[in-house]
Specification:
350 residues, alpha/beta, globular, seven-stranded mixed beta sheet, three-stranded antiparallel beta sheet, 10 helices, 15 strands
Length: 350
């Protein structure tokens, strides 16, 4: 499949009519070439990939979006579908190809492609198939965009972020995963819904694995700047730990519920990843719980394990990891989560 781009020519043989259609102002200087073009590449145009691309487009985060997928017909169809909405959207150039050359010069490469689990297939076998897929994806991305940031969305995101880091050869700050950014949003929503406040006024993090061993940091939750658990204790308002655990388990099961109801998740992860893209590309220095190299933080030792921690993000990727107060119990759960991920990583032979 040949690379396809937004066309700007009409007439026989693709004649460029721009010069005939538009006349320059008398005695004006020619246009100055600009290198200030923000380019984002999205690998994988399934439900998740296209939700991310669509959200990035509507939020005007890129001057150019490149789409890559192994299915040429679906790829071209998705690109055309977005191009046809050009009159209602910010001006953005689209390219699409099965060839990774289309991603050259990207500022941010978002990877959503991944193998689906077959009936009866073990998690390890699925992971190994995804590693084989990443061997085809990550090296060309790194070669064609050596100064880019890699943002991994494919699951299991923690282990595959580690794989992307190893295969890319990039500095560790320029490889991160979407991690528990969405889990934390679900967490904030549930707390906000319970208290009848705006979720943006709730500060709350889920850390660790993006999965069953994730850890809810109840000790650091605040609403409108008020530490929730400290407030309850000072007001002598009783609460049960099981109630807190039930809320966490609702977060863990949220994706499964959506998949059961509609067959897949898309919109929430689209907004989550676009939110990360905005913070990175516009150097907003915001704190997000994302998958990073966790060695040396919160008692996580013994290997290059990747999991979600609250991290300060900017134009160069991960700026630093935030020092969030954790109870001993929370830190112990995080270390246990790290061990779970480390055991998976150790079976890959990278």
């Amino acid at each position: 499949m040949k690379k396809t781009a937004s066309a700007s020519s009409f007439g026989p043989g693709g004649l460029d009519l721009t010069s005939a259609f538009f006349k320059p102002i008398l005695n004006s200087d020619p246009p100055i070439p600009s290198n200030r073009c923000t380019k984002i590449s999205v690998v994988g145009v399934g439900n998740v990939g296209m939700a991310i691309a669509q959200t990035i487009l509507t939020q005007d985060l890129a001057d150019e979006i490149a789409l890559v997928d192994a299915k040429p017909d679906k790829l071209r169809g998705e690109m055309l579908d977005l191009q046809h909405a050009a009159a209602f959207l910010p001006r953005t150039r689209f390219t699409a190809s099965v060839d990774y050359d289309v991603t050259a010069g990207s500022d941010l490469c978002i990877v959503t492609a991944g193998a689906r689990q077959n009936p009866g297939e073990s998690r390890l076998n699925l992971l190994q198939r995804n590693v084989a897929l990443f061997r085809q994806i990550i090296p060309p991305l790194a070669k064609l965009s050596p100064d880019s940031i890699l943002l991994i969305v494919s699951n299991p995101v923690d282990v595959l972020t580690y794989v992307a880091w190893k295969l890319s050869g990039f500095p560790v700050n320029r490889v991160l995963g979407s991690g528990t950014n969405l889990d934390s949003s679900r967490f904030r929503f549930l707390i906000a819904d319970h208290l009848d406040v705006n979720a943006q006024d709730v500060q709350a993090f889920i850390v660790g694995e993006h999965g069953d061993s994730s850890v809810a940091l109840w000790s650091s939750i605040s609403v409108g700047g008020i530490p929730v658990l400290n407030f309850l204790e000072k007001q002598q308002i009783a609460y049960e730990k099981q109630t807190l655990e039930d809320i966490h388990q609702t977060v863990v099961g949220s994706a499964y519920e959506v998949i059961k109801l509609k067959g897949y998740t898309s919109w929430a992860i689209g907004y989550s990843v676009a939110n990360l893209a905005r913070t990175i590309l516009r150097d907003q220095r915001k704190i997000h719980p994302v998958t990073v190299l966790a060695r040396g933080f919160y008692g996580v030792e013994g290997g290059d394990v990747f999991l979600s921690l609250p991290a300060l993000l900017g134009r160069n990727g991960v700026v630093s990891v935030t020092s969030v107060n954790m109870t001993d119990e929370e830190a112990e759960k995080l270390q246990k989560s790290a061990k779970t991920i480390s055991e998976m990583q150790s079976q890959l032979g990278l």
